[in-house]
Amino acid sequence: MIRAYRSLLAVPGAARFSAAAFIGRLPVPMLGLGVILLVSARSGSYRTAGLVAAATMLGYALAAPAAGRAADRFGQRRVLLASSVAHTAGLLALLSTTTAEAWVLCLAGAVTGASRPSTGTMVRTRWAHVLAPPAPAAPRPTTTSPPDADPASTAPLETAFSFEAVLDEVTFIAGPVVVTALATHVSPRAGLLCCLLLTVGGSTSLALQRATEPPPRQGRSHRGTALTVRGMPAIIAVAFCGGLVVGVLDLAVVARAESLGSRALSGPLLAVLALGSMAGGLWYGSRTWRAAPHVLWIRCLGVQVLGLLPLALSAGVPTLTAAMFVAGLTVTPIGTSGLVLLERLLPPRLLTEGMGAETAAMALGAAGGGWLSGVTVSALGPARALALPPAAAALALLVAACCLRSTAVSAEDRAESPAPSCPEPGTGQRV
Q1: Contact assessment for residue 359 and residue 215, using Cβ atoms and an 8 Å cutoff
Q2: Phi, psi at residue 286, to the nearest 5°?
Q3: Strand, coil or helix: 422
Q4: Residues contacting 373, CB < 8 A, separation 6+
Q5: Sequence-ordered alpha helix ranges (H) in 316-431
Q6: How far apart (Å, rounded) are the C-alpha atoms in residues 227 and 72?
Q7: CB-based contact 108:93 (threshold 8 Å)
Q8: Angstrom distance (rounded) from CA 281 to CA 176
Q9: CA end-to-end span of the chain, whole Å?
Q10: CB-based contacts of 284: which residues, under 8 Å, 6+ apart?
Q11: Whole-number pLDDT of residue 5
Q12: Residue 346: which of 241, 183, 261, 224 has the closest Cα?
């Protein structure tokens, strides 16, 4: 396992751009919580704080695909630097208008969210670029095995995406602790100021690393959109269902912990979920999978349904803790297999846009999951609300199964398509 990740980070420039992106996205779980802590402290209203936090997350979800498309077309450096400037303006406006009317706060929050640099998406696109095999000197002969069945073509990418997913889990463990400590022990503004420094610092560092940046593709070669590629609707729908799982869990676990005697248990329980995800991701990324990406994707979805079922059956703190860890084991393999499939579906000129759309769908699903979980907890109780995650995972599996042929065909079409009109050095077709 260690050897796989050591080899990955030995790729020239990889350790530096991965570290910069990690710093840039450490504030992702901090931003919404920091907004709630600041606005609630200044206005005295959790309702207003929730509205502003929702506006911030919605702004990011709606802008992410457009930011990805701009990065594909004009390059990551320009988009990261422009986003950093706009994000700074939006966050400073939010920090200076905490006593204003709710709509002003929501507007500042929406600008802040919409301009947040998508370092998590861009680092994955960068991995796909640096790990791409060299362009072949001549067309390779046709073989009887499908292009997707070559494990060597996706194994390093699966390791890279798993590694980044594990770093994501680290941010979700450390980020809330940092922002809460700063906001409660230093100043309500301190948490968001820390978010600003980390976001701008990490994004600027990533933007300045030109050697590993995927080249922009402008002109006629950039026609079309990732959203119209066959198979992408299935990816987006499954990502939305995955967001539902996350959104439901966040609220339902808090309510369930309170019903079991201590609301403070919710933090450790969510940390156990993240630890399970890290363990599952490290194991998954260290292996070489021989199944085609679309087959591996649907297998992971099926395993997630089984992994979430114990949540609905947990009766006390020990069983709930064990169920959270088991559920976490399935999180990173789902995300990694989906991103590898997405990378195979899309031509390089649309990759960042496609990843942005997938991220936006998950964010919208998380928002919907929070609302659905709240309604279910109020009507049926927290124990029954924990039956929603396996139901959402089953819906994702159903969607993927119904669309399995389209994702497989699209992956083959993409692998067999001619090279783009503006090929970059070191990048060729996946075969």
Answers
A1: no
A2: -85, -5
A3: coil
A4: 247, 248, 249, 250, 251, 252, 255, 385, 388
A5: 317-329, 331-345, 351-380, 382-385, 388-402, 404-416
A6: 14
A7: yes
A8: 21
A9: 26
A10: 158, 162, 332, 333, 336
A11: 84
A12: 224
Tokens 């001549």 belong to residue: 138
Question: pLDDT tens across 224-234, in order?
Answer: 788 788 888 89
Within 10 Å of residue 263's Cβ, how many Cβ atoms? 13
Give the integer Cα–Cα distance in Å for 410 and 120: 25
The CB density around residue 218, as the number of other CB atoms within 10 Å, is 13
Residue with tokens 């890290």: 278
Please report the pLDDT score of residue 405 as a whole number: 80
Residue with the two structure tokens 């590629």: 229
Query: Could you tell me if 230 and 406 are in contact, meaning their C-beta atoms sit under 8 angstroms apart?
Result: yes
Ramachandran angles phi, psi of 386, nearest 5°: -75, -5
The letter for the amino acid at 112 is T
Asked if 108 contacts 97 with a C-beta cutoff of 8 angstroms, the reply is yes
Burial pattern 286-304, b for ≥16 Cβ within 10 A else e, equals beebeebbbbbbbebbbbb
Cα separations (Å) of 214 from 34, 289, 315, 342?
33, 26, 50, 17
Residue with token string 């065909």: 409
Q: What single DSSP character describes residue 224?
A: S
**Tokens, residue 357:** 């759309």
User: Which residues, 6 or more positions from 228, have their beta carbon under 8 angstroms from its beta carbon?
Assistant: none
- The pLDDT value recorded for residue 145 is 41
Residue type at position 168: D
Residue 10 near residue 159, CB atoms below 8 Å: no
Q: Which amino acid is at 337?
A: S
Enumerate helices (H) and strands (E) in the chain, giving the number of each. Answer: 18, 0
List of the chain residues with pLDDT < 50: 137-138, 140-153, 220, 410-412, 414-431
Q: Max Cα separation, the chain?
A: 69
Residue type, 330: T
* CB-based contact 266:129 (threshold 8 Å): no
Angle, helices 293-313/388-402, rounded to nearest 10 degrees: 160
Per-residue tokens: 353: 């846009």
Question: Would the CA dihedral through 65, 67, 72, 74 be positive or negative?
Answer: positive
Structure tokens at 371: 């609302």
Q: Which amino acid is at 407?
A: T
Q: How many CA atoms lie within 13 A of 427 on its CB side?
A: 22
Residues 6+ apart with CB under 8 A from 45: 39
If one counts every other C-beta atom within 10 angstroms of the C-beta of residue 331, the result is 27
> What dihedral angle (degrees, nearest 10) is formed by the CA atoms of 73, 78, 81, 84?
-30
What's the CA gap between 358 and 237, in Å, rounded? 9
